[in-house]
């Protein structure tokens, strides 16, 4: 895979495998699915945060001593690809309280599998912020490419975009990173591939439907 240095996969610890075992189980209730997904999302956001630019900042502690710490160099903005991406907003808000969230609506045709852009809304200064792009599922890569193009059209530099992703297919990952070599992607798993319906294997089903309780089975 090209540009592997820009793909950051969570360490395959037994605990992460345990979380995935809970989430991937087709019998998991919405409550179970969400509770364990949120824990993975938190790990993804922490990993993504480690890729942000920081600068040194000294602060005074309650005992009057100096702590040589750091602060974010730029503001941050989360951007959700509606609606699965919105599952990542609560943990983002916990980690970066008061930081804005933008939205992008892209829908994939169920027959052709091709994505269509419908809507986006961002803070006016998004081009000067680091952007977390929330897209849990990276299968063919078509929807994510549309979302990235939308950010680029709004003057967000490619190197300031960090995709926060739950599962990725090797094909989709390679397609996105090859097209956007300065992009960074954080994921919890690179899957084995896709089936004839463009669902990843072993997969998780439709993340948005399962997280928001509209999954039929």
TrEMBL record:
Cofactor: Mg(2+)
UniProt keyword annotations, A-Z: Allosteric enzyme, Glycosyltransferase, GTP-binding, Nucleotide-binding, Transferase
GO-annotated molecular function: GTP binding; uracil phosphoribosyltransferase activity
InterPro entries in the cross-refs: PRTase-like (IPR029057), PRTase_dom (IPR000836)
Pathway: Pyrimidine metabolism; UMP biosynthesis via salvage pathway; UMP from uracil: step 1/1
Keyword Nucleotide-binding part of the UniProt annotation: yes
Chemical reaction(s) catalysed: UMP + diphosphate = 5-phospho-alpha-D-ribose 1-diphosphate + uracil
Entry EC number(s): 2.4.2.9
Pfam hit, one: UPRTase
Ranges for domain Phosphoribosyltransferase: 12-214
Record family assignment: Belongs to the UPRTase family.
Job description of the protein: Catalyzes the conversion of uracil and 5-phospho-alpha-D-ribose 1-diphosphate (PRPP) to UMP and diphosphate.
Protein name, UniProt field: Uracil phosphoribosyltransferase
UniProt source species: Photobacterium galatheae
The organism's taxonomic lineage, starting at the top: Bacteria, Pseudomonadati, Pseudomonadota, Gammaproteobacteria, Vibrionales
């Amino acid at each position: 895979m090209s540009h592997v240095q820009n793909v950051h996969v969570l360490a395959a610890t037994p605990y992460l495998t345990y979380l995935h075992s809970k989430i991937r189980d087709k019998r998991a209730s919405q409550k179970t699915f969400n509770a364990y997904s949120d824990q993975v999302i938190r790990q993804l956001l922490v990993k993504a945060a480690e890729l942000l630019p920081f600068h040194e900042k000294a602060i005074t502690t309650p005992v009057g001593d100096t702590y040589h710490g750091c602060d974010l160099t730029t503001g941050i903005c989360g951007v959700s690809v509606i609606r699965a991406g919105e599952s990542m907003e609560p943990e983002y808000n916990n980690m970066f309280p008061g930081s804005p969230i933008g939205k992008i609506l892209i829908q994939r045709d169920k027959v052709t599998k091709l994505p269509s852009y419908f809507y986006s809304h961002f803070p006016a200064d998004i081009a000067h912020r680091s952007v977390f792009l929330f897209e849990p599922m990276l299968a063919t890569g078509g929807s994510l490419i549309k979302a990235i193009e939308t950010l680029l059209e709004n003057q967000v530099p490619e190197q300031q975009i960090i995709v926060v992703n739950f599962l990725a297919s090797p094909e989709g990952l390679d397609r996105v990173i090859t097209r956007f070599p300065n992009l960074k992607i954080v994921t919890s798993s690179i899957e084995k591939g896709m089936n004839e319906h463009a669902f990843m294997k072993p997969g998780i089903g439709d993340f948005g439907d399962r997280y928001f309780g509209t999954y039929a089975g």
